[in-house]
């Protein structure tokens, strides 16, 4: 039986310990809270202080930075990047290679497409087809 954690050195030389999530085997840092019914794929990272709700699906290569909040039943596609302190509402979908900036807010049920960039501090809501609504 292999070990259930990985130690990774950050850019400043500090070593962070990540445990492998029970559902998907993605890496969850000490201090992050991920619901056991969330799916964190191999190759995805959840940083310290982040929270991921029940039913969320975090695909391979996705990265959730510190203090981000991922609601219930959220879908983060491959290589999505959620900035520090960002909030993703329940049942929102974030596309492939999309970046959500620090402190940005994505409304409940919003659909953000592939290869988009949501600037830091921005609040975004969409209609069911993914068209952005006026704030």
Explain this structure to me?
With 135 residues, this protein is mostly beta strands. It has a single domain (23-124), classed as Hexapeptide repeat proteins (UDP N-Acetylglucosamine Acyltransferase, domain 1), CATH 2.160.10.10. The chain has strands at 5-9, 15-20, 27-29, 33-34, 39-40, 45-46, 51-52, 57-58, 63-64, 69-70, 75-76, 81-82, 87-88, 93-94, 99-100, 105-106, 111-112, 117-118, 123-124. A hairpin with a 5-residue loop joins strand 1 and strand 2. The model has no long low-confidence stretch (mean pLDDT 93).
List its traits.
six-stranded parallel β-sheet; mainly beta; eight-stranded mixed β-sheet; 34% strand; UDP N-Acetylglucosamine Acyltransferase, domain 1; 135 residues
* Count of DSSP-assigned helices: 0
From the helix content, strand content and strand pairing, which structural class follows?
A: mainly beta
What is the total tally of β strands? 19
| Principal-axes shape call | globular
Uncertain runs with pLDDT below 50, 5 residues or more? none
**Average pLDDT over all residues:** 93
Report the span from N to C terminus.
Answer: 52 Å
CATH C-level: Mainly Beta
Radius of gyration: 14 Å
Tell me which CATH architecture applies here: 3 Solenoid
Helix content, binned percent = under 10%
Taking the sheet with the most strands, its summary is: 8 strands, mixed
């Amino acid at each position: 039986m292999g070990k259930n954690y990985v130690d990774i050195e950050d850019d400043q030389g500090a070593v962070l310990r990540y445990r492998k999530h029970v559902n998907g085997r993605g890496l969850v840092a000490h201090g992050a809270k991920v619901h056991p019914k969330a799916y964190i794929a191999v190759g995805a990272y959840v940083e310290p202080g982040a929270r991921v709700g029940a039913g969320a699906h975090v695909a391979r290569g996705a990265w959730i930075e510190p203090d981000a909040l991922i609601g219930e039943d959220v879908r983060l596609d491959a290589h999505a990047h959620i900035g520090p302190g960002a909030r993703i509402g329940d049942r929102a979908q974030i596309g492939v290679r999309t970046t959500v900036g620090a402190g940005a807010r994505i409304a409940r049920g919003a659909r953000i497409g592939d290869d988009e960039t949501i600037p830091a501090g921005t609040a975004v809501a969409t209609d069911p087809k993914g068209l952005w609504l006026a704030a």
